[in-house]
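Protein modeling request. Please complete all fields; requests missing the sequence field cannot be processed.
Requester role: graduate student
Desired output: 3D structure, token encoding
Chains: 1
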Amino acid sequence: YTTTLRLGFVSDTQDIWGSVSATGCALPSLNEIKEALARFKGEILQTPPMMSALKHQGARLYELARQGIEVERSPRPVTVYSLELTDYDDSTGEVTLDCHCSKGTYIRTLCADLGELLGCGGVMTSLRRTMASGFAIGECITMEKAEELYKSGDFERFIKPIDTVFTCYGEITVSQAQAVRFKNGGALSLDRLKSRVDGITRVYAPDGGFLGLGKPENHQLAVLKLF
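Delivered output (227 residues):
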């Protein structure tokens, strides 16, 4: 993600679209911000915001928040792999950050927690997702562009093979007989595979065709998903 936040303000939604008020506190220096950011790297505990889709006794938190109801939320572990400051305007208190984080991380909460740690408050003012599942925003096209390419017959070159979504997993090529069995939903003996399998794995036929995903289970490579 790339996000901007404004120091010196607080909000009931932790972002600029809620009820915002100025704290009147002095803005921190660049070095103070950098030192504070170091506290948010790695595995941290984060309390989910009320304006979220998490449920409490069957009701979404944001539904309760809109009724003026606030409930206690337990902090949850999330991982911030990297958090870099790319710009700071000390005249306005606007900070720009690049963040690579785990699923379940709330960026606006990160902004609010940073502002709280700095003693001046902070609200998120913009958020842009720059990468997801290994795909960078530079590889994306708009729906309008996609429609234009489809009509012109030039759409195929923008379509990526389905297995590119799963490059985070290992891979294995099986024999033709094993490929037929796997494609029909049958599990493969781990002892008869050419290489070791650790965790979820991409499974390929001898001709390079992507069969699907497998998972070790009871000394076998069981079918997780076929394509």
